[in-house]
Write a structure and sequence with these properties.
The protein is mainly β. It has helices at 73-76, 85-91, 223-227, 301-309; strands spanning 3-9, 21-25, 31-33, 50-58, 63-70, 95-101, 111-114, 124-131, 136-143, 154-160, 170-173, 181-189, 192-200, 204-211, 219-220, 236-243, 249-255, 264-270, 279-280, 292-299.
Length: 318
């Protein structure tokens, strides 16, 4: 049986919220905090905060890797970015924050890896998936870009085998018509690739698309729209999913419609991705606090026990 690791941040107005947190679970349904509720990893470079984490195991480096958006609202929104989300989107970091570990317990210090160039705005919300055809890893994210005057965002991707060097970014998905897309998450099932994302307008809301190729072309699954009825499209983002041991898919949507730590994920369950049918399942899940924008990695029972007992100490305090 698998256990589960949820890598995420916590939405607070203080810098400790925009750091790396671990949640763990034996069944993917009932979650508990780690490290006595403190951050597992800290940011000391770039914007000195990170959000929107993804985690993967790299078979080439034989290490786990965490990648996140290089951004701190608690430090930067009031000062560096002058209370302007537009300024963040246009002038934010072109790098990702990265940490590596051989065992999920002992992690490298934060490093910044520049993937974008001057044509990109802020590099938002990275996610990682292995490509069995090319035998490498695809990292994808949302950005504004000079090609449309840094207007509506699109999803871009780059390839890597070591999470240190990356190919030139390419366009993965841009929505037809007006309205940007953000917060991409891609999963493979039965030979198909399924892309969850947030459409910012026309219409706004979480969408599910499908393609026979990892890098597209993706087509929308309309049945998923019915599953999202009753969900305020303006107040949910950051879809992330995991396939549970019983074969069902658990989908989590990040609810940001209230202030502070009342924000967090709401859960859904589905028998399979291709159906597009997801049912809200609040009563089945439990969280010790409100997780924010992350991803889930399947781990072993032994890893679960070690993470649960481990005390993570910031690198500069060792």
């Amino acid at each position: 049986m698998s256990a589960y690791l949820f890598v995420h941040f916590r939405e607070t107005t203080t810098p400790d919220g925009e750091q790396v947190y671990f949640g763990i679970s034996r069944d993917g349904l009932h979650w508990e905090e780690t490290n006595e509720g403190r951050p597992v990893l800290w940011c000391y470079y770039g914007d000195k905060g990170a959000r929107d984490f993804t985690i993967a195991y790299c078979k080439y480096t034989k290490k786990y890797v965490i990648v996140g958006t290089d951004l701190s609202l608690s430090y930067g929104l009031r000062g560096k970015y002058h209370h302007s989300w537009a300024e963040i989107s246009r002038h934010g970091s072109k790098a990702f924050s990265v940490w590596d570990s051989a065992d999920l317990l002992n992690w490298s210090e934060q490093r910044l890896v520049t993937v974008g160039d001057e044509h990109f705005g802020c590099m938002w919300a990275p996610d990682i998936i292995y490509d069995p055809e090319e035998e490498d890893y695809v990292i994808h994210w949302s950005s504004a870009h000079s090609e449309n005057g840094f207007g509506d965002k699109a999803i871009y991707y780059s390839r890597t085998r070591d999470f240190a060097t990356f190919t030139q970014p390419q366009l993965l998905y841009r929505k037809e018509g007006a309205g940007g897309v953000i917060d991409s998450a891609i999963y493979r099932e039965e030979g198909w690739y399924y892309l969850f994302l947030k459409s910012e307008r026309n219409p706004s809301g979480i969408q599910l698309l499908r393609s026979s190729s990892l890098t597209g072309t993706y087509e929308k699954i309309d049945a998923f729209d019915k599953s999202m009825r009753g969900i305020d499209p303006e107040k949910h983002e950051a879809p992330t999913a995991v396939k549970l041991d019983d074969g069902r898919w658990a989908l989590f949507l990040d609810y940001f419609g209230v202030a502070g730590e009342k924000q967090g994920y709401i859960p859904f369950l589905s028998e399979n991705l291709g159906s597009g049918v997801f049912e809200r399942a609040d009563t089945v899940f439990s969280f010790p606090y409100r997780f924010k924008h992350g991803t889930i990695l399947k781990i072993t029972e032994e890893q679960y026990e070690k993470i649960k007992r481990h005390i993570f100490i910031p690198k500069d305090n060792r």
